[in-house]
Amino acid sequence: xxxxxxxxxxxxxxxxxxGRIVAVNASLCAMLGHERDELLAERHxxxxxxxxxxxxxxxHLFPLLKLQGEVEEIYLSLRSKEGEEVPFLLNGRRRxxxxxxxxxxxxxxxxxRSHFETELLHAKKAAQKASRAKDEFxxxxxxxxxxxxxxxxMVATVMEMDPTLPEEARAQAAxxxxxxxxxxxxxxxxxxxxxxxxxxxxxxxxxxxxxALLSHTAEIVKSEGTGKRVEIRFEKxxxxxxxxxxxxxxxxxxxxxxxxxxxxxxxxxxxRVVTSNDGEGRLVVRVTDTGIGIAPEALPHIFNxxxxxxxxxxxxxxxxxxxxxxxxxxxxxxxxxxxxxxGPGRGATFSVALKTLPVPAxxxxxxxxxPIMGPAGLRLLLVEDHDSxxxxxxxxxxxxxxxxxxxxxxxxxxxxxxxAGNFDAMISDLGLPDQSGLDLIKAIRAxxxxxxxxxxxxxxxxxxxxxxxxxxxxxxxxxxxSFNHLRALLDQVTRA
Length: 496
Ligand code: ADP
What we know:
Elements: H1 3-7, E1 11-16, E2 21-24, H2 26-32, H3 36-40, H4 51-68, E3 70-79, E4 85-97, E5 100-109, H5 111-146, H6 149-161, H7 167-197, E6 206-209, H8 210-223, E7 231-236, E8 242-245, H9 247-263, E9 270-277, E10 282-289, H10 313-316, H11 322-332, E11 336-340, E12 348-357, E13 379-383, H12 387-399, E14 403-407, H13 410-419, E15 425-429, H14 437-447, E16 453-457, H15 462-471, E17 475-478, H16 483-495
Parallel strand pairs: 7-9, 13-14, 13-15, 15-16, 16-17
Antiparallel strand pairs: 1-2, 1-5, 3-4, 4-5, 6-8, 8-12, 9-10, 10-12, 11-12
Residues 256, 260-261, 264, 289, 291-294, 302, 307-309, 311, 318-324, 348 line the site of adenosine-5'-diphosphate.
């Protein structure tokens, strides 16, 4: 052996195709605690490897050397004389030497790196665990925040519609309802933001008529009554106005943009919603307002989560999530959303471009809310452990002409299904104190197989929805449950 090889600060090893060790330098012998003569005496290279290293030698290292003549940056463990595993990085080359093939390898010890890698792996696992914990916390928080909103929203809706109440009381109930809805929407935004951050926002695409969707969205913005005189004007100029998309999510985008335009425009101002085709197969919706405008230095940041363009939050409210969520939704639709403004005080324009579809022959996804004329005279089983939600729901359902039997736990519900059986439908919370609603529906279906069942939960994740349906629920409502929505859903499931 060349003495220079012995002085190298790394290992050198050469072995023949039959595995016999031909040469090994002093450094490698020292690192592994072997005598050189001992290794050269008919020892097979595989005896140097750890158990995993031996398998790797047979399945990868040697086949690769034979196939491509060289290998680079192979990470493997050798075994010291004491049986300790020593990690190495190996580069090797196979070449002919006097009529037979030998593979010559340089081995760099990797103790430090493998230590860092282990640490990195631990850190990654800890970060993943923390991120999961954050998701779970967000889900639990939304659940806790939504639950008390359900009875508030329901009582307010019913009072607002009650003709026996004085006008003033009904107007006050409307204020309560609007604010509870606003609160629910803020919770939804936080949840959507978490979903987007985790890549869990999914779409349910179908052909959508964007003109119909825009009119409907503007109606919603108007009905939310900001108390301002801001006129919303439409110029529907696009000849092709159908897109493939998720109607509810697209509505969320335009609701955000139109609501912002109204919010940032003073009374007497105007919001114009103009649609056009760009000649390249896209529909462009431009929402232009005469409001406070956006400073050039703020423009690039307003689509980032929690950015509010340097505007004092206290003046206008909001979390600064609307545009971040809107951009994520538009991107999922392979579209673009842009903001322009000539500067403070000079209004702003938001434009959304989406690929158009030829006019569909199939029925479109409905953009209008379902009719709220519910069914009457049903026999219902209501399962809910939150006392005030249960009381209010039962009262409202009874007032709508239904017979309602209530249970606060899964066990009570099963008892009722046994003793008082034959319900027209069941409405059940998913988180019950003694069992999950998912288990309850299975038990109830064993007693009354075809019962239509609606699940209610404060968790609004798509996965929960899928799980509820998989367990046997006919449909699903996210709290806070609006009474009109419940009524429409009851109608739907009992008619089906
Ligand atoms: P939020 O409205 O809750 O603050 P958004 O994400 O919807 O959050 O908007 C982010 C920021 O973009 C707003 O705080 C505001 O500074 C700016 N912005 C959005 N729309 C307009 C508009 N039409 N006119 C002026 N500024 C706007």
